[in-house]
Specification:
- The structure is a single chain.
- Helices cover about 40% and strands about 20% of the residues.
- The protein is α/β, with parallel strands linked by helices and about 290 residues long.
- The chain folds into two domains: about 140 residues, HUPs (Rossmann fold, 3-Layer(aba) Sandwich); about 130 residues, HUPs (Rossmann fold, 3-Layer(aba) Sandwich), CATH 3.40.50.
- It has a ten-stranded mixed sheet with strand order 3-2-1-4-5-10-9-6-7-8, sandwiched between helices.
- Helix 3 packs parallel to helix 4, helix 5 crosses helix 6 and helix 7 packs parallel to helix 9.
- The N and C termini lie close together (about 5 Å).
């Protein structure tokens, strides 16, 4: 997260593989860049296994990878010209493991936000398949925005409603402040969600329901206390259920345009969302931003 938990987005990295999913993400990238007055780097990576892809997809006999890279750079220079008109854009091609190259570029070039599909279906489908996305989500030290895990995206633009899933960990206060500042800057309504796991296999018994409600109310009080400490006022829902299903279903019910989860949820061994973060990303009907 940015120092002081103030959102700073001046440089956006957009991994791009010429797939339909990549083109559908472009309007979101443009909207974020325009709102934060940020520059965009469009990065296309040739994976090391590209030479041994099936016929018609790899380097043809007699061709050199460097020649193909120059051709790719030429194609990239002509891509997304209309979509990014009026925004500072740099287009770069690279070679190597896509997940590593994306995170390495972000760390060495002052990137503030990575925006990418969860998968790509173009010629370079290896760029944005699950393994590369997972590596970026796990290794990147900057916020990562991932599109909805679907072929068709909602109309690209800034979110109007942000649902922040708070796990109650020690980093939750920082997440709350970041979420509040981000929502204010993009002009979105912020809503908070905390999920409590079921404590009984007998939810129909009155005694068990009462015990579950006590746990839910205690969790509610804890998150309210975190809100007060962070100085963040936003509607809070504390729900009982399985994390992935509850987060994604609540996002649908609230008509959220963006789900926000904490970076520690992906990296911390104790983060309650760690084992569920990828499930949220895969099942969400809207983009997910991990910070």
């Amino acid at each position: 997260m940015s120092k002081g938990h103030v959102v700073v987005i001046k440089h956006i990295l957009f991994p791009f593989d010429f797939s339909a999913q990549g083109f559908e993400v472009a309007p979101f990238v443009r909207a974020f860049a325009s709102r934060f007055n940020a520059s965009i780097t469009v990065l296309s990576v040739i994976p090391p296994w590209f030479e041994v892809m099936p016929a018609g997809m790899g380097v043809r006999t007699g061709e050199d990878v460097s020649d193909w890279a120059r051709a790719l750079q030429s194609r990239l220079d002509q891509a997304l010209v209309t979509e990014f008109a009026g925004v500072p854009v740099e287009r770069i091609t690279d070679g190597g493991d896509p997940g590593f190259r994306i995170t390495d570029f972000a760390h060495s070039h002052g990137v503030d936000l990575i925006m990418m599909p969860t998968h790509g279906l173009g010629v370079f489908r290896s760029l944005l398949v699950g393994s590369a996305t997972s590596k970026v989500l796990h290794d990147a030290r900057v916020p990562v925005w991932t599109a909805a895990h679907a072929e068709q995206q909602r109309t690209g633009g800034l979110p109007k409603t942000v649902l922040c899933s708070v796990d109650g960990s020690p980093t939750s206060g920082a997440l709350l402040r970041w979420a509040a500042d981000f929502s204010t800057r993009v002009g979105a309504a912020l809503k908070l969600l905390h999920v409590v796991g079921p404590i009984t296999d007998w939810p129909l018994l009155e005694r068990e329901r009462a015990l579950q409600e006590q746990v839910r109310q205690a969790a509610h009080a804890r998150i309210v206390s975190l809100q007060a400490s962070a100085g963040v006022q936003a509607p809070l829902r504390v729900a009982v259920g399985e994390i992935v299903a509850t987060v994604t279903e609540t996002a649908r019910e609230e008509d959220a345009d963006l789900i926000l989860i904490g970076r520690g949820s992906l990296q911390s061994a104790l983060g309650r969302l760690r084992t569920h973060a990828y499930g949220i990303i895969q099942r969400s009907a809207c983009p997910v931003l991990s910070v």
